Amino acid sequence: MLEVRNLFKSYDGKPLLKDISFQVGVGKTVCLLGASGSGKSTLLKIVAGLESPDSGSVLFDGHDLANTPPHLRDFGLVFQDYALFPHLDVYDNVAFGLKMRRMNQDEIAQRVANSLEMVNLTEFEKRQVTDLSGGEQQRIALARALAPRPRLLMFDEPLGALDRTLREDLLNELRKILHQTQIPAIYVTHDQEEAFAIADRLLILHDGIIVREGHPADVWSNPGSAFVARFLGLGNVMEGKAIGNKKVETAFGTFRIDCVHTHQKGDKVHVLVRPLTRVERSEPLGEGRRNAVNLIQGIVTDILFQQERFKVTLDNGLYFYLSESPKIGEKIAVQVKVECLT
Amino acid sequence: MNQTVSHRDTETQRLLNFSVSLWQKRFLFWLLPLSFLLIFFFFPLSRILILTFDASTFTLENLRIAINALGFTFYQATLSTLLTLLLGLPAAYLFARYDFRGKSLLRALIAVPFMLPTVVVAAGFNALLGPRGLLHTLFPVASLPFIGTLTAILVAHVFYNATIIIRVVGNTLSGLDPKMEQAARSLGANPFRVWWNVVLPLLRPSLFAASLLVFLFDFTSFGVILLLGASRFSTLEVEIYLRVLKLPNIPLAALLSIVQLVCTLAFSILYTRFTSRIFSYTPRSAKSNIRKPKTIREKVFVITFCLLLSAFFILPLSALPFRSLFRLEADRGQRNEIQPGFTTDYYTELFVNRRGSVFYVPPIEATFNSLGYASATVALSLLLGFPAAFALAKPTRLEKILDPLIMLPLGSSTVMLGLGFIISYGAWLTSPFLVPVAHTLVALPFVIRTLQPAIASIPQRLRQAASSLGASPFQVWKTIDLPILRRATLAAGTFAFTISLGEFGATLLISRPEYPTIPVAIERFLSQPGGLNYGQAMAMATILMTLTTLSILLIEKLRLPGAGEF
Q1: Cβ A81–B459 below 8 Å, yes or no?
Q2: Cα–Cα distance between B219 and B318 in angstroms, integer?
Q3: Distance of alpha carbon B434 from the chain centroid
Q4: Rounded Cα gap, residues A78 and A82, in angstroms
Q5: Which of residues 36-65 of A touch B (CB under 8 A)?
Q6: Looking at B83-219, which runs of residues are DSSP E strands?
Q7: CA B309 to CA B293: how far, in whole Å?
Q8: What b/e sequence results for A321-340 when a residue is b if at least 16 CB atoms lie within 10 Å of its CB, and e otherwise?
Q9: What residues does A55 pair with on adjacent strands?
């Protein structure tokens, strides 16, 4: 089991990682999600031993790795730009880690064949890596990292350079392989779809701090902060003021909120209005509905067709997913559920 | 069991590799190259400096000689540069704008002299225009004296450096966006105004940079002046040589060295400034504006200039092997009958240890000496160049300071290096090992500049990937860096080899009489009377030219993977 304890790291006096701690359990995939510059690649390099932290420690099965150089950590690493060795063919690339471990030829051949089978590139042994497509190169890079059966696998934006369909295919294969081999993994990405698809546990990194950690479904249903909700694109985030228990006043109206904590009158509160959940298209406000609870109204300014739904933007800047398309310029009202974020 | 063994390996490797911090690593990288430079460059340089600032150095006579030498050095370098421009600019235009058959061959041909040893070029002109040369022996009436004239020096300098103007200015010219000239024309400029007001101003930085580089080479020229000037002309370098070996006055030689060093440093700094401006100033276009000559005038220009260039660059280089294989006059004192015609005597004579000849050993030994020195230079300069290039490929603040220091020997004259050795390590001059050391000083900057970009071009991720797969730092170097760098290493080694083969200035000062190199042997043959000596000089120079040309071809081939210009 990998354990990262209280890591600090700064570059040129600017703090990049501030007190990072997390664990990767046996057979689990932990996904580090963050925008570029959030420090996630640096964190990965520290775990790999390619950089050293200012303070804090990296432990594996209880052993501190501070004095273990990268080549003795036995952690596999897969890069976004593959980093295949251009002077070696596919076989020698995949065999590289095995040769470094001084295995005998037969076992190396066996393992290379195995790894290539895992990534579905069995016939590629004698090919030059420079002749391969991006997707194939990334599979070879994955096979190369898998071949020595490392005790941990690390992925640094591994699918970032690939196009969408290829990305989905490879992601599925990767999930299958990680499940099969039960190798614990750290997966770094800025793409939330990728993160939610592959993570057993999700860590959201922002400004060198883990702002949210949890099971993907938990994080989704309970983002916990305005930043996470915005970053994950969960819906309309607005700022408001508590005007009583479970009641918040915002620029878009006064809402009754679902909330576990208690707010003092006058507290600043962020709320989330999800575009999809429990949204019902309503007729524009009539006299009788003026006091209706959690009703948002506005004039439709933009409609975007998204296969099974329409993304409708209102003149107040809020957006909702509706199953039927209204008309631009039409005044509509929607019933919303409002969640508290802080 | 396996487990325990690998664990012990782990421990030792940990101690070996990981206990060193970044700074300690940098220190290890620099240890060898810096100590080498300190011992063999900076210490001798400091000795020369100390000698220079001795009160006895600044006598009126010494100052007069120094000022005269400096004056003539400037004079001949300025004239040479102007003449080089005169030939180089139209040639640059020819190559940058016109497409014609044999173009790449002609361009490669013009580039050959630049890498040739000075003794070969001097011997080539001697074979063509010298008193025993082709022209003189075939048409005794028509020929004018050539060796020992300023003309000879100027012509050889143009021959050497025209390729610089052609490459540097030509590159800018061919990259110039043709739309700018078209725009100028549409705005009412005639072809002359287009050149004067648009093209020339855009070419100015590269024109200055190229001229300055040519000037720098002419300024530090040694072999050409010594061999073609026949001791009648003294540049700073020649004067240093004279004051060390012929009319010993070491303090004066030291003073001249420092004057020379200050001048070349100033020019180098100016040059760096100009080159940094070339790219930012010139709007470039990917579209080619090279075309076939169409009008009569264009065709005449292209054909005449091609013929002129071919003659100028082919004749001296072909006269050399020709003259080494044909007897054109009596070998005075050695033979009685005149037997003009084909002969291999000059080559077979190289294997004979003749009593009373210039050497104590068969002259062909010079070839073996040269090859031995060159091999030692390759080994030494790679050994020192690799760690330095590795450190420079990932520069920290330390490397920014060290980089110009490492390149400093490039700007100092080779005769000065020889002088420094004589002053500092005179006692060691009896052994031949100082010669490859001097050659390494000259070759090291080239070796580093060849390796450094190749090392920098290897993505750090490859090394990290290898490391994460279990490769130790040494294994990373062995399995990743070295195989990828094979090409660059071979090119750097060949560079060192070529430089060592042709090095003349320092070798002339420090080589032992019984261990001559090819250039030194050629110089000695040329300075002796008699047709046989002359013929042997030609034969030696031909051997050197062949060896060097083969090396140049190898370097070119290594530099351009796949389809090159050839």
Answers
A1: yes
A2: 27
A3: 20
A4: 7
A5: 45, 48-50
A6: none
A7: 17
A8: bbeeebeeeeebbbebebbb
A9: A8
Nearest to B349 by CA among B528, B498, B512: B528
Domain B24-53+353-566: assigned CATH number: 1.10.3720.10
**Would you state the CATH architecture of domain A237-340?**
Beta Barrel (2.40)
A322 — pLDDT class (breaks 50, 70, 90): confident
Give the Å distances, CA to CA, from A158 to A51, A138, A141, A153, B528.
Answer: 20, 7, 9, 12, 73
What SS3 state is found at B2?
A: helix
Q: Do B469 and A76 touch (CB under 8 A)?
A: yes
**Cα dihedral B228, B231, B237, B241 in deg (nearest 10):** 120
Q: Which residues of B touch A71 (CB under 8 A)?
A: 466-473, 475-476
Q: Smallest Cα–Cα separation from B413: which of B511, B544, B503, B523?
A: B503
- CA pair distance B173, B157, nearest whole angstrom: 23
The CATH 2.40.50.140 portion of chain A extends over: 237-340
Could you tell me the pTM of the whole model? 0.73
As assigned by CATH, the class of the A2-226 domain is alpha beta
* Residue type (1 letter), B485: L
Residue with tokens 């073609």: B228
Establish if A144 touches chain B: CB-CB under 8 angstroms.
yes
Q: Which of A70, A141, A144 sits opposite B467 (nearest CB)?
A: A70
For A16-60, how does the pLDDT look when each residue is reduced to its tens digit (9 = 90+)? 999 999 999 999 999 999 988 888 888 998 998 888 899 999 999
Tokens 């230079």, residue? B377
Strands A236-244 and A268-273: antiparallel
Mutate to test the interface with A, among B9, B15, B468, B487 (most CBs of A within 10 A): B468
Q: Is B14 in Cβ contact with A85 (below 8 Å)?
A: no
Task: Say which residue the tokens 């100082």 belong to.
Answer: B434
Q: How many residues does chain B have?
A: 566
Q: Is the ipTM of this complex over 0.90?
A: no
> What counts of helices (H) and strands (E) characterise chain B?
27, 2
Q: What DSSP character marks residue B284?
A: B
CB contact under 8 A, B470 and A72: yes
- What are the chain A neighbours of B479 within 8 Å (beta carbons)? 96
At A217 the pLDDT is 92
φ, ψ of residue A233 in degrees (nearest 5): 65, 45
According to CATH, where is 3.40.50.300 located in chain A? 2-226
Contact present, A129 and A90 (Cβ < 8 Å)? yes
pLDDT: is B533 or B180 the higher one?
Answer: B533
Kindly list the residues from chain A whose CB atom is less than 8 angstroms away from the CB atom of residue B471: 71, 96, 100
Q: Does A71 touch chain B (CB under 8 A)?
A: yes
* Angle between the N-to-C axes of helices B150-175 and B200-219, in degrees from 0 to 180, rounded to the nearest 10: 150
Q: Give whichever of A309-323, B181-195, B344-358, B373-387 has the largest mean pLDDT.
A: B373-387
Beta-strand relationship, A309-314 and A253-258: unpaired
Structure-block tokens of residue B554: 């190898």
CATH topology of domain B75-325: MetI-like fold (1.10.3720)
Residue A18 β-bridge partners: A8
